Structure formats: structure tokens, C-alpha cells
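Reopening this one. Same input as before:
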Amino acid sequence: MVDISGYFESYLDYLPLILIVLSLYWTRLVGGPWVPSSMQVVNRMMEMAEVGPDDVVYDLGCGDGRIVLAAAMRYHARAVGIEIDPLRYLWCQFLITILDQRDRIRIIFGNLFNQDLSEADVVMCYLMPEALTKLEKKFKQELQPGTRVVSNRFTFPNLEMVQEDGGARLYMVYPDKDE
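Same output, byte for byte:
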């Protein structure tokens, strides 16, 4: 057994460890744990949605920012990431600053269920099925007809799937406000 008693002299010494543990687990309560998509999957998602320079791409639970960065840097779209984890939010802010993408990317710190998505032309997500079910009503209320929604791995239970890349289990749906 490892003796760590000499490493922590006050309760403040535990703070970084507590923040890291909280960062890893509390996002599960909102939408799901952070599991990064491979860049191959990210590019497939972008291609399925036919992302282009005129699009505004929203990434719900943007994690380390790889989707918003790909949207801006490779597909020349504007991108908005929403992240509830403060450490990942700060990491994204750092990345878009050092990569000089502040004019194309905006990162919002907050709960994705409380954000207005009406500006989105494309919505990307890698969330648990329970979160996708909750998002369906929000999508139908806020998204414009023809908005492209791509979900990595999991599907929306009541939205019509129009394309699937079976290997990566990607789904695209077109929510309709009139349903």
C-alpha cells in the first residue's frame, strides 16, 4: 500500500485531486461521460452532415474541442461548443486561442439543455440515450426544419434516421418543427 500522508499537509492540497475526480464523474449526470471520438469518426460525422463554410455547427458536450476545431479548421464553418465541465471548457478556450480560432469558434460554459440551439445548421453529439431522448423535444422546438443532427453511436428514439454509417454507428436526423 502506498503511503500518501506526507503529500497532503492541508485540505487545500486535496483540491486539485477533488477537481479532477469531479470533472471525470459529474458530467455523467447531465449528458454522459467524456469519451472522445476518433478524428476518423469526427470527419465521417462532418461528411455525413455535409458541413461547409456557410454552416454553424454546434457540438453538444464539446469535451476537448476536437469537433468544433475540425468544423472551423478543416470545413471552414463557424462552430459553437457547449461544455459543462470547467476543466474541459478551459482547455477548449486555451486551444481556440493558441490555434487562432476565436473568430470562428465560441465555447459556452453551461448545461446544453439550457442553451438556445436555434442558430445551428448542424448539431453534433455523442451523448447517452437518456440525454438524446430529452433533447428530442428541444430540437423540435428550437431547430429550423432541415437542421442536420448527427449522433455518434447512439440514436434518437423518435426521430427519423436518414443515413447511417454502420461501422461507426452514426445517425443523422432532420427534426421537423411541425411534428
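So the earlier flakiness isn't reproducible anymore. For the record, Helices lie at 15-25, 39-48, 66-73, 86-98, 129-142.
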